[in-house]
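testing teh design pipeline on a random one, pls ignore if ur not involved
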C-alpha cells in the first residue's frame, strides 16, 4: 500500500506541476487563477502523501469541494460546461481516497474507501449523462403543429432543391411518423468512381428514373425501383482539387415530340469547366447542343490554371436557359478567373447572355482580345428561380483573396457576399442585397435561397426569400424588390486589429427580426476541452488570440473568427415544410484561428501548417503583401475548443419567427480525441454538411452529421424517430420520391463519406417500407 501511495503521489505531483505551470501562464495572460491554485494544491497534496501525512486526503477533498463550487459559479448547471471541470478532479479524488487510506487511522479507512466509491459513482453517473442529449431547445409548452393531409401521387424531383424554389419539400405521407420504424434498405447502386474527392450528390428523379453524378462527374440513370443502371456517361473530367458534383439539372422540351431524341435532357457541368446536354432516355450527347453535346465554359475566361475555375454545384435551368456560375480556388492570387454569370440556350448551347459585374457593358462574349473581368465575386453555390417574377437569385461569394481588401476594386466591395436578382430574359440586375460590407472574413453566400410566401399582416401573402449565411444570420427579403421583410439593422463592429492600410466597415448588417443560429459570442469561460487539461490549453489559446466579438478582423496577430468561414450555415441550404410554414437548417459551430503572414515569412509558415490547396488552410494570396493561414480552433487532442454542441438541426416557425426546436446533430461515435475512433455515441452534436429534406408525413431526413447514419426526425418536436447505419458517412442531402410504376415511396441518399473522415465510398442507397 505504501508503494501505491508513493506512486500516486508522484503522478499527482506531475499533474499538479502541469496545472500550476499552465495556470501561471493563463493567469499571466489575464485569465482565471483557478488552474494555478488547484495545481499548487495538488502539488501540496502530493508532497503530503509522499510524506505519509493524512492531511493529503483532507486537502484533496477540499480541492474537490472548491472545484465544485468554482465550476457551478463559472458554468452553472450546463452539463457540457461542467464535464471537463469536474470529471478529472472527481477521478483524482476517488483514486486518492482509494490509494491513500494507509495514511489515516484504521477506523477512518472505511470512510476513505466509501468516499472513493462515492466519487466513482458520481463519475459514472456524470459520464452516463454524456449519452443523453444536452443543449437542445424543446418545443414550447402547448405549441401546436397542424398535420398536413399531403398527397401521394407521383411527382418529379427536377432540381437540386426539388424545384428551383429550393424548398426540399415533398407532400408525401406514405412514409410517416407512425410507420417510419419499418423503413428498410430497398436497393444500393455503386457508381464505381474510386477517384479522388467525395460524393455530395442529391439525385434527380424523373418518372421512374433517378439521375445521379459522382465526384468526378460520372453520370448514371438508375431504375427507381431496382437501383439497376439504365445508362452511364463518363465525361472523363479531371481536376487536381475539390472533386465533387452536388447535382444535375433537367429540361423537358415541350416543342419536341414525346419520344424525339433529347426531348428530355440532363444538364451537367464538370470539374474541368465543361457543360453537357445528354438525352435523358439514352445518355447520348445531344447533337444540336454546342459541339457534339458539349460547351467549353472556358470561353472568354482567359488563362485558367488547372483547378482554378470549374463547377461544383448543379446548374440551374430557367425557362429555356441554363444558368452557370463557377467556383474559383480561394486565396491563391489576385486576378483569378472571372465570376461571370452566363446563360446558355438549353437547346443549342449558344450563349444567350452574360452578366459581368465588373463590366456590365459585356452582355455576351467579351470583345476580341479581352476577357470577362477577372477577380470578380463568383457564385459557387446554387441559384434559385421564380418563374412568375422572372427573377434568378444569385448568392455571390467574394473576390479572391478573401482575407485582404487593400486595393480591392469598387465592384468587388459592391458585390461581395451579396444576393443579386437578375432578369431571366436579359441577365440584367433588378436588385441586390449585401450581407457583409468589405468582406475580409470569407463570409461568401454559401447556400441556395428558399423562395417562400409569408403573411403580409393584411390577410394576404407576399413573395419572400429566406437567405441563410455563414454568419448564422437569416435574412427574410421581399423577393420582388429585395426589401427586408424582417428588420435589418446596421450595428457598429470592432475597428481594431486589421492589417496596415486595411479599412473596416464601421457597421455591418444584422437580421434582428429573425433568429440567429450558432453564432454565440466566445469567451475564456466558453473555451472547452474533453478534460480539464485540454480545456486549460484552450483557455490559454483564447487569451493568446485577438477576439473582439463578431467581425474580429484578420491581421498580423492570430485572431479568432466566429462563426468561421465554414459556418454558421453552409451549402446544404434550407428545407421548408410548406404546409406548416416551418423551415429547417443544420449548422456548424467550430470557430477558426486565422492570421496574415508577411510574404517573406510565408514559405516557412506554409511548411509547418497543413493545407488542402483549396484556400482552406495556408494560402499564398500572391499579389498581396501577405499570405494567410486559417484552421479550425482545436485543442491538442483534436477536439474543438468551444463547448458542445458543435452542430445542430434547428426548426424555425416562420409565422412567429422564433425557434420551434433545436437538437444536437449526430454523435461522436466515429470520432474521438487524437483522431481515435472510440465508438462512443455521445449525442454531442457534430459539425454538419449537406442539408435536410422534409415531407408532409412529419419527417425530416438528414445524413450530414459525422457519424455514419441516415436519420429521420419528427418535424413537430425534433425527436429522432429512426436511424439506419450507413457503410460510410454522407455529405449529401437526401431526397424522396414515389415510383409511378409501383407506388412505393423511396428515400435516397448518396453515401460517399462524411466530412473529416478518411472512410469514403461510392454508394447511392434507397430505403422504403416493406411491400404490402
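output:
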Amino acid at each position: 500500500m505504501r508503494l501505491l501511495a508513493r506512486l500516486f503521489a508522484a503522478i499527482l505531483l506531475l499533474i499538479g506541476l502541469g496545472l500550476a505551470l499552465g495556470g501561471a501562464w493563463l493567469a499571466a495572460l489575464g485569465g482565471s487563477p483557478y488552474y494555478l491554485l488547484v495545481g499548487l494544491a495538488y502539488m501540496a497534496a502530493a508532497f503530503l502523501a509522499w510524506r505519509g501525512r493524512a492531511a493529503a486526503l483532507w486537502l484533496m477533498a477540499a480541492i474537490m469541494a472548491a472545484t465544485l463550487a468554482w465550476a457551478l459559479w463559472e458554468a452553472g448547471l450546463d452539463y457540457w460546461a461542467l464535464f471537463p471541470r469536474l470529471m478529472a478532479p472527481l477521478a483524482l479524488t476517488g483514486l486518492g481516497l482509494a490509494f491513500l487510506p494507509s495514511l489515516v487511522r484504521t477506523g477512518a479507512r472505511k470512510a476513505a474507501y466509501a468516499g472513493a466509491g462515492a466519487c466513482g459513482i458520481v463519475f459514472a453517473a456524470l459520464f452516463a449523462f454524456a449519452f443523453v442529449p444536452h443543449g437542445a431547445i424543446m418545443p414550447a409548452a402547448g405549441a401546436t403543429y397542424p398535420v398536413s393531409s399531403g398527397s401521394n401521387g407521383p411527382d418529379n424531383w427536377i432540381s437540386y432543391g426539388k424545384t428551383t424554389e429550393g424548398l426540399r419539400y415533398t407532400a408525401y405521407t406514405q412514409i410517416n411518423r407512425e410507420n417510419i420504424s419499418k423503413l428498410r434498405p430497398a436497393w444500393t447502386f455503386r457508381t464505381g468512381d474510386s477517384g479522388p474527392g467525395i460524393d455530395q450528390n442529391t439525385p434527380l428523379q424523373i418518372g421512374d428514373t433517378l439521375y445521379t453524378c459522382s465526384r468526378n462527374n460520372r453520370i448514371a440513370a438508375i431504375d427507381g425501383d431496382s437501383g439497376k443502371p439504365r445508362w452511364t456517361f463518363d465525361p472523363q473530367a479531371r481536376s487536381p482539387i475539390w472533386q465533387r458534383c452536388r447535382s444535375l439539372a433537367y429540361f423537358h422540351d415541350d416543342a419536341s415530340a414525346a419520344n424525339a431524341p433529347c426531348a428530355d435532357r440532363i444538364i451537367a457541368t464538370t470539374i474541368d469547366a465543361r457543360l453537357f446536354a445528354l438525352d435523358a432516355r439514352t445518355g447520348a450527347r445531344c447533337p444540336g447542343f454546342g459541339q457534339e453535346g458539349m460547351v467549353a465554359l472556358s470561353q472568354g475566361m482567359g488563362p485558367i490554371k488547372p483547378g482554378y475555375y470549374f463547377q461544383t454545384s448543379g446548374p440551374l435551368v430557367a425557362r429555356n436557359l441554363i444558368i452557370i456560375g463557377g467556383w474559383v480556388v480561394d486565396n491563391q492570387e489576385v486576378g483569378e478567373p472571372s465570376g461571370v454569370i452566363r446563360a446558355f440556350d438549353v437547346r443549342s448551347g449558344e450563349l444567350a447572355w452574360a452578366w459581368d459585374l465588373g463590366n456590365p457593358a459585356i452582355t455576351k462574349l467579351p470583345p476580341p482580345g479581352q476577357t470577362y473581368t477577372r477577380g470578380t465575386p463568383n457564385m459557387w453555390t446554387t441559384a434559385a428561380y421564380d418563374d412568375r417574377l422572372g427573377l434568378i437569385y444569385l448568392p455571390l461569394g467574394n473576390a479572391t483573396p478573401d482575407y485582404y481588401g487593400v486595393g480591392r476594386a469598387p465592384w468587388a466591395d459592391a458585390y461581395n457576399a451579396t444576393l443579386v436578382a437578375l432578369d431571366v430574359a436579359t441577365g440584367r440586375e433588378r436588385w441586390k442585397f449585401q450581407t457583409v460590407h468589405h468582406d475580409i472574413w470569407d463570409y461568401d453566400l454559401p447556400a441556395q435561397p428558399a423562395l417562400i410566401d409569408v403573411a403580409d399582416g393584411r390577410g394576404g401573402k407576399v413573395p419572400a426569400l429566406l437567405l441563410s449565411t455563414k454568419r448564422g444570420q437569416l435574412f427574410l427579403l421581399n423577393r420582388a424588390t429585395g426589401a427586408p421583410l424582417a428588420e435589418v439593422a446596421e450595428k457598429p463592429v470592432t475597428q481594431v486589429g486589421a492589417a496596415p492600410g486595411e479599412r473596416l466597415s464601421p457597421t455591418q448588417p444584422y437580421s434582428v427580426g429573425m433568429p440567429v443560429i450558432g453564432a454565440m459570442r466566445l469567451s475564456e469561460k466558453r473555451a472547452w476541452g474533453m478534460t480539464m487539461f485540454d480545456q486549460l490549453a484552450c483557455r490559454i489559446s483564447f487569451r493568446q488570440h485577438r477576439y473582439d466579438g463578431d467581425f474580429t478582423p484578420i491581421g498580423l496577430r492570430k485572431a479568432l473568427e466566429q462563426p468561421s468561414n465554414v459556418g454558421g450555415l453552409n451549402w446544404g441550404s434550407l428545407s421548408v415544410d410548406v404546409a406548416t410554414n416551418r423551415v429547417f437548417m443544420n449548422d456548424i459551430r467550430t470557430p477558426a484561428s486565422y492570421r496574415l503572414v508577411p510574404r517573406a515569412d510565408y514559405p516557412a509558415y506554409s511548411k509547418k501548417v497543413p493545407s488542402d490547396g483549396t484556400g482552406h488552410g495556408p494560402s499564398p494570396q500572391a499579389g498581396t503583401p501577405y499570405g494567410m493561414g486559417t484552421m479550425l480552433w482545436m485543442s491538442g487532442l483534436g477536439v474543438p475548443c468551444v463547448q458542445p454542441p458543435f452542430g445542430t438541426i434547428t426548426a424555425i416557425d416562420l409565422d412567429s419567427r422564433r425557434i420551434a426546436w433545436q437538437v444536437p446533430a449526430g454523435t461522436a461515435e466515429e470520432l474521438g480525441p487524437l483522431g481515435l475512433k472510440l465508438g462512443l455515441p455521445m449525442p454531442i452534436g457534430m459539425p454538419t454538411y449537406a442539408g435536410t429534406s422534409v415531407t408532409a408525413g412529419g419527417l425530416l431526413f438528414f445524413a450530414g452529421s459525422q457519424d455514419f447514419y441516415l436519420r429521420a426526425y419528427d418535424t413537430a418536436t425534433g425527436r429522432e424517430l429512426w436511424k439506419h447505419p450507413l457503410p460510410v458517412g454522407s455529405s449529401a442531402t437526401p431526397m424522396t420520391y414515389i415510383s409511378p410504376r409501383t407506388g412505393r415511396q423511396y428515400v435516397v441518399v448518396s453515401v460517399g463519406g462524411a466530412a473529416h473522415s478518411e472512410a469514403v465510398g461510392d454508394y447511392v442507397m434507397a430505403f422504403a417500407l416493406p411491400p404490402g
